[in-house]
Every structure is written in structure tokens, then in C-alpha cells.
Amino acid sequence: MASVASARYGKENVRVHKVERDPTTGVQTVTEMTVCVLLEGEIETSYTQGDNSVVVATDSIKNTIYIKAKEHPVTPPELFASTVGTHFIQTYPHITTANVKIVTHRWARMTIDGKPHPHSFYRDGNETRKVETVVTRGEGINIRSGIAGLLVLKSTGSQFHGFVRDEYTTLPETWDRILSTDVDCTWSWEAFPTLDAVKENAPKFDKAFEDARNITMKTFAEESSPSVQNVMFKMGKSILEAAPLVKVVDYSLPNKHYFEIDLSWHRGLKNTGKDAEVYAPQSSPNGLIQVSVTRPEITSKL
Ligand SMILES: O=c1[nH]c(=O)c2[nH]c(=O)[nH]c2[nH]1
Question: Where residue 82 falls among pLDDT bands split at 50, 70, 90?
């Protein structure tokens, strides 16, 4: 005997590009995203009995994403994901949860002769804005927003010393090193009861994204950090202070090592410690440091 423990299905890698045109100014704005929608509900019989009467075809799911992109704003992505997810639970009574993920790709407006160009853009990096929305009938809308692929490096202003030294340790302590990481930062919002509540709060999503991005870069640049652990905690704390509706901030930061190269074997060339100039970037292995930063429990005064 076997039974379905859990199941979800849908369409992923749905690529959507929307052009919005302002007829008065002639300025056009583009949004490009990759969408994934996975549905859950009373769909077990499609797996166990071959009963397709409970299946909304993944092709129809893809069509729905295009139609919703035509009919509704696609920004902020938190709102578009909530719009799409709410559609599925409202339209199909046997669908109880819609999981909607959106990755928004960068198209930065070109500056030509010092002026923003009305309809030309360029890809200014691999960084993406990501949103994961879970819309569940009777439970509201849970949203996680984030930044991925923001590659940063500082050539000084990072230290790592005082760590455990024992018979497994070879790493020297350092008071000055290169620090580089590929930022993956996610912030989770308090649950929204309805799509209208998401709409009312829509401006907060773009603000939180800009704040999180600026805080991440400013803290990285300005903190003379004793470790990745300490700098990422400071980033998370500042994001919680900037976004009152955010309840948890998660960071996952690879420590992309740059090794000094000892060149003293060549005519006594000095290239270590304070003389280090030429480094060997390491592709693997890398450190991986993660944290979830939350607000302290509010203790009851009763
Ligand atoms: O910031 C760091 N944290 C660590 O935990 C660690 N471990 C290590 O080898 N280098 C570093 N750097």
C-alpha cells in the first residue's frame, strides 16, 4: 500500500517581459521576470487514480501568468505574486494553496549624453530580486522577499582572529584581509490577511528592497568586521529596524577566499602580510555562513 504524503505541481521557468508605455512622456519601462507557480490541494487522485478532472493543466497555469501580467501591475513583485496566487485559490475550490516564486532580472535604464534614455536598457549585473509567496485559503498570504547574486568585495577593512586554535588549525590570524561574498538575503513579512492588505502595503515592498540593498552594501563597506558572522548580524538588525512589518531576516553568505601568494622564492620578492598585492582568488572550497535574525520575544507584562 502507498499513499500521497504531499504533492504540488505547476509551471516553472515561465519567462515574462512587460513593457509599460507612458503616452504623455514617451518614456517606457520594462520588467522582466521568471515565474514559478506550484499548486496544492485535493489533487491526490490525479497521482493515485489517474484522475485528471482535478488537474488545472500546467499549460493553463502558464497562460494565466501571462494574462494576469497583462491585466495587473507586475510591480512590486510581491503584489503580482499575491495577485496570481489569489486567483488560483479563488477560481478552483479544490486548490487550497498556491506557491508563487518570482525572480526579477535587472534592466537598468541607459544614460545617453547625460540623460536617462526613454526606452533603452542594459543588464548591470547578475543580481536579482526574488519573491516567494504562499497564498493559502483561510490563512492569508505569506511573503518572503530578497536579493540574490549581489557580488561584493572589499580589499581591506576585514579581520579574522581569536578563533579556536588546536591541532586542526593552520589558518593564521589576520587583522587585514580581502572579504568577498555573493549576497543572498531574504526577509519574511508578517502574514497579510487578504490581497487588499498586500495592495495597501504595496509601497513598503520597494522601500524594503532598496533599504535592504543599501544597508547590506553600506554595512559591508563601512564595518571593519571581525568576521562574516558579525557583519551579517548587523545587516539583519538594521533591516529589521528599517522595515517594521518584517519579522525575520535571513542571510546566506559564502566567504569567497583570496589567498596571499608567497613569492619570496623568486629573488626574495615580498608579497605577504603588509606587502601583499597579488592574490589568488579561490573558486572552491568556500566558507558558508548563515543566520536568521529576528526580533526579541515581546515578554508579556501581565
Ligand atoms: O569571517 C569568517 N568567519 C569564519 O567562520 C571563518 N572561518 C575561516 O576559516 N575564515 C573565516 N572568516
Answer: very high
pLDDT at residue 199 in the model: 98
Domain coverage including residue 202: 148-301
Express each pLDDT in 259-269 by its tens digit: 999 999 999 99
The mean of the pLDDT values for the chain is 97
Active site residues: 11, 58, 257
Does some domain include residue 2?
A: no
Hey, which bits of the chain come out as E strands?
9-21, 28-41, 95-105, 108-112, 115-122, 128-136, 140-154, 179-189, 246-255, 258-260, 279-281, 287-294
Q: Are residues 105 and 134 in the same domain?
A: yes
Residue 297 pLDDT class (50, 70, 90 cuts): confident
User: Residue 59 is part of a domain; what is its CATH number?
Assistant: 3.10.270.10
Query: Average pLDDT for residues 22-27, to the nearest whole number?
Result: 97
Instruction: Find out whether 100 and 36 touch, Cβ atoms under 8 Å.
Output: yes
| Ligand 1 site-directed mutation target among 154, 160, 165, 220, most atoms within 8 Å of CB | 160
Mean pLDDT for the stretch of residues 234-244: 98
Mean per-residue pLDDT for 98-120? Answer: 98
Residue 205 is labelled as binding a ligand: no
- Closest residue to atom 7 of ligand 1, CA basis: 287
Please tell me whether 160 is known to bind a ligand: yes
Distance between CA 200 and CA 135 in Å, rounded?
17
Pocket test for ligand 1, best of 158, 161, 163 (most atoms within 8 A of CB): 163
| Angle, alpha carbons 133-209-151 (nearest 5°) | 105
